[in-house]
């Protein structure tokens, strides 16, 4: 998974906030619960998870119990704050109205428990969780398509690009033309690994 | 607010104004008021565009006071789109102003005997009904500008655009917001066509000289309002998500759940969702000097509205809502936020329902009139409707009519009204609402569905009242209170999740009116409203056969979950078995 082209250190999570909603890849221990992934593996405290993460979708299926929802290699995990409206209430974790989406609700089938080891998980963070949880993932490192990174970086004033992004592969600040080259590498399916200080900066 | 203003547009010698005491309608507001009057006074077999139909415009019970969130207005009639009863709801300023003018409702009756178009002006001291044919076919923005020049900036306007004058079934009644722009709409069901059939172009409201409505018990009211506001502010939906991102906060999660209807309900996920999500919309607005945190009426503390500027930083439209972005975005395969914002502006200006029209354009795309994803073509189709070309006349009458004209099977409608932004195959609970709501496919009128289907809260015997669990009952109480008081529906979940906020809502009502309503009283009122509406529909000729989804939702699975709508007919028929 993490055979990214380059590793970029990001000093401001807000500069890449838009990437969190699209999707990013992380490394995770698979066969563990969503709660384990968030708290033990990615250091988000349980109280924050309980108070803020109100809508959870695992492989497009609403999750009611994050202790029982098991992450596999290749899973997609989407996290959101509480949603408005009747459907928002129906999709909420542990919702009283959960049976109203019973045909799509996540149910563990027992096979997940046999899984172990490392795997790749796709994560999406939505709305209020972008600012709240994004930095936690960024500190451990996330992998995104180079084109998506380039789009986000090019929306920032050129002078800021050098301040915010540092290419750890070459150990120098990233320039605007560097970013444009990432955009070009998108055709070859290029990816970049982004990491924030305070986390794991080892180049893959 | 103890007067009903009746304007008979067809009276001999010209429109006649009568001020009636509220009488038997006392204690009702918003949808409660509109449905009570329509169900009692309108012949269910009348033609919706005929003289016997009535257009009822009613503020909420707390409108015109300092109660937070009390600025919603209801517009009711027999719907030209569904053939049944209709209540369409709008934000903006008119509710506050109309209530301070002392009117519990405006009722437009009859039909003019000439071809004149009328302007109605309501002030503290008079009601003027004047022919003003210079307003013919003015789009809403131009119309409101004209009214501003003539009457000043203190006014609020209720109007129809060209679509309403052309009596299209997708025509809206527009309401001006705090900036005096016609951006809020009583959108669903063709209420604008009924106003057009009464040949009323605009109602100008001016409450100069009027005071805020005062509660019976000011101290208790003030305290209740404080607790109510605090509750809304601390709840994550009303205090964080909606103010920051608006209703379009839903796009990403609904898409992720596979319930985001795409390309005319042909699948449940849209690849371009991140380009049109609430997160992207808010970021764009901030970058261009717009504002993603904005109230549609004074007294709103949720502030889920916003303003959307173009690339040059100039105002383009109000922040397009989730439903608008979905209908004209994913459902048409369009991922261009600026194009969707342009469509939103056009709808506001022409006075067209964004949900109905988005669904209609998607049907038109399936019919080959345009390609899915072609925003330019979609805009052209909207202009056809707004200017009344022959094709536009078809489109402006909604998805069902358009599907019929072009021989398309996939018309996602119930009782003739297009479905909103949730696929009922993935989320069956919303499918139940679509099917059984007296309003047609409606995502907001069905909160008070009984929890005795789909085994909500465990297995519940639907015939045993004591089987209803507390949360379900509280949902019905909360939403009945909201429907009948005219409060903004978005308070619903803060009220449900936080008992002190729910109590504060009851305290607001009781302290304002000097009553002692309990939750049970309000539930009874909500049930009464639904019973009246169902009764009207039955007398209008609607049967249980109209309480169904289109057949293909039962047979054609939706990706990615590959599910169909599986709720049995007999279960749908039990929803109102209380």
Give a structural overview.
The complex is a heterodimer of chains A (204) and B (578). In chain A, the strands form two sheets. Chain A has a five-stranded mixed sheet with strand order 7-10-1-8-9. A five-stranded mixed sheet of chain A has the order 2-6-5-3-4. By secondary structure, chain A is of the alpha+beta class. Chain A is elongated. The mean pLDDT of chain A is 89. Chain A has helices at 17-22, 34-41, 46-52, 85-91, 128-140, 146-154, 158-164, 176-185, and strands at residues 6-10, 24-29, 55-58, 61-62, 76-80, 118-125, 142-145, 165-167, 172-173, 191-195. In chain A, helix 6 (146-154) runs antiparallel to helix 8 (176-185). Chain A is built from eight helices and ten strands. Chain B is α+β, with helices and mostly antiparallel strands and 578 residues long. Chain B is built from 22 helices and 17 strands. In chain B, helix 6 (218-234) runs antiparallel to helix 19, helix 11 packs parallel to helix 13 (375-387) and helix 12 packs parallel to helix 15 (399-406). The longest helix of chain B has 21 residues, at 519-539. Residues 448-474 of chain B have low confidence and may be disordered. Classes of the chains: A alpha+beta (204), B alpha+beta (578).
